[in-house]
Amino acid sequence: MGVQIAPSILSADFARLAQAAESVQAADWLHVDVMDNHFVPNLTLGLPVVESLLAATDLPIDCHLMIEDPDRWAPAYAEAGAGSVTFHVEAAHAPVRLARELRALGTRAGMALKPATPVEPYADLLDELDMLLVMTVEPGFGGQKFLDLCLPKVRRARELVSGRGLDLWLQVDGGVSAETIERCAEAGADVFVAGSAVFGADDPDRAVAHLRALAEE
Ligand code: DX5
Ligand code: ZN
């Protein structure tokens, strides 16, 4: 698949989400951060807004669920038509069952790891997934500083994926910018979420193209 860029609308104007989607036509995905004020100390949006966005854009939607009990809530995002649904392993009760359920609903199943969550304990369930998200900030807010300490985990995740010959995308999210994206790509990431680096730019589409060029180098 090569490099994919997924702008996060967390840094867009929430009253103009359709225009935000339109402003990043060069993107591969639209990354939508669902937060419930429990799993993370912030509240964003939920299923009704995702449904409206699905109707408002042709870009596939990548839902990042930062919520408690994703076992209960995640399948509805797949049923609504999200192209990818990512749950946090720290919050999931039965990650294998949930991943299988998401795939059965026709969506790509993603699993996310917070900075302090190691990848090794999950090595045996990687082939149940279509994407692994290695967070590069503590989830909850846009505009945070990139955590370099997460890069060795990206590298180890890439080794596990290659070693097992899996077709698994490796996503990074948090503090990804023109300053940090090359380090992420070098460590083995291939799907890059960027919020403030895209929607904080004067020309979001140009920012997407610039990030892509840096990651492809
Ligand atoms: C943070 C979210 C990210 C956020 C990234 O918890 O998961 O998707 O939007 O924002 P930046 O790119 O500004 O760090
Ligand atoms: Zn996110």
From TrEMBL:
Gene Ontology BP term (one): pentose-phosphate shunt
Required cofactor names: Mn(2+); Zn(2+); Co(2+); a divalent metal cation
Pfam hit, one: Ribul_P_3_epim
Pathway it works in: Carbohydrate degradation
Catalytic activity: D-ribulose 5-phosphate = D-xylulose 5-phosphate
GO MF annotation list: D-ribulose-phosphate 3-epimerase activity; metal ion binding
Key word Metal-binding present: yes
Enzyme superclass (EC): isomerase
Cofactor note: Binds 1 divalent metal cation per subunit.
GO cellular component assignments: cytoplasm
Listed InterPro entries: Aldolase_TIM, Ribul_P_3_epim, Ribul_P_3_epim-like, RibuloseP-bd_barrel
Residues annotated as binding substrate: S8, H64, G140, F141, G142, G143, D173, G174, G175, G195, S196
E.C. number: 5.1.3.1
Family, as annotated: Belongs to the ribulose-phosphate 3-epimerase family.
Chain's role: Catalyzes the reversible epimerization of D-ribulose 5-phosphate to D-xylulose 5-phosphate.
Name the record gives this protein: Ribulose-phosphate 3-epimerase
